[in-house]
Design a protein that fits this description.
It contains 14 helices and 15 strands. By secondary structure, it is an alpha+beta fold. The strands form five sheets. Strands 6, 7, 9, 12 and 15 form a five-stranded antiparallel beta sheet that branches. The structure holds CU-O-CU linkage. The site of CU-O-CU linkage has 8 residues, from helix 8.
Length: 470
Amino acid sequence: MQAQFTRRRFLSTAGAAASVAVVGSTLLDVESLFAATTYVRRNVGGMSAFDPVITDYRAAIKAMQALPTTNPLSWAYQAAIHGTTLTNNLTAWNTCEHGSYFFWPWHRMYLYWFERIIRKMCGNPCWALPYWDWSSPTERQLPPMFRDTTSELYTSHRNTAMNNGSGSLPASDVTYAASFLFTDFTNADSTIQGTPHGAVHVDIGGWMGQVPSAAQDPIFYLHHCNIDRLWDLWLAQGGGRSDPLTDSTWKSQKFTFFDENGAQVQMNSCQVLRAAAQLKYVYEGEPPQVNQNCLRILVPPIFWIKELLFKIPGPPVELGPDPVSFPIDIAKIRERITRVLANKSQRLMLQLDDIETETQPGVVWEVYVGLPAGQAPNAEGPHYVGNIALFGSGIRSEVHGRRHKFMPASFSFVINGAIEESIRGNAEKIEITFVPHGVLIDGKPSGPEVKSKVKIGSASLVVASEKEKK
Ligand code: C2O
């Protein structure tokens, strides 16, 4: 611990020194000194607006914005790699991965090359991307330097309340507890894509609310830096958690980016498994990184096999500004549910499919199972199971670029706890309830403004069982 602290301080001090000393041969000295060392991605929480990490980021954005869109190092080109509404589809444009198990690795690669470009464009060879730890109760507002209207870090294309400091992220939008429950990569990666990832996109709104514009907002990269950090933290939970190292598609699929000299580069997931060893960065305060390896698979990854238990005849339902619910008739399936609940290697899941809407709704829906009639929904109570937060998948207006065609969204939630609570009485029916929320205003829930209604096409109860695959 002591050693880590010392190195961290050494690096951040060196970072500060380098940013003032980027002249002549001093730069070369600093570069060779740090060539073999590790970058530390620091928490933006508590960071001053004059911290070199911030001032250098601003300088780089300014320089990148001055370049023509066709230059891979330009701000516009980098954002377009993630997504764009421009139709001239240059190399690697519109290649972000959502609704797939490439979500974590693709965004890790994207940030890695982006960070190298920022380093070059600001001239600080020690620069590392900061992360926005929105889960921390003290960091629920947009970091202050991103709200300064005179800064390169500001854009007016955001939710007004988030941008003026009165708005903050609701606790249920920033919790990753549900995704960390999963021991298999696919479920963890896909749950985290919804909440916190998608929910924070929706709450910031404006550019961040839509895939084709999200990466134009400078906060995008700090948001994703935290999502990337959660990949490390998820693995560090142990309990058999592993990347899908026996999945050859996951391991071999190549993605294209540009390095800091504007040269095309390609990368696959195997090249981004060990952040410190392969990409030379660690996160401030993180536990030791788990060294996964495509060639030496020490523990076979866990997979979860899903089987349909019961198709719920309730949907389609439409989500709008008011809470809606539909019942599950459990009289006939009570016994099967009880059996699943008793089996320690099984989970009962509520799966919602064929979810679609026209444009970004601007609202997140909380999902409850078995909420008793007349009881106020409470995301901290036992009946809350997760959120529906749409970003990309399921939004018709966001079909963009040559690689993307419309895909409805799906969400699944572990409901063991909520259903156990509900079947204790002898109820014949339990309700599935959807409650919309917007960002908090001055710390209080605000009346959500639903910009586009959402249709849930089908719902089912699914049993997920843990399986090891050799
Ligand atoms: Cu590719 Cu948060 O988005």
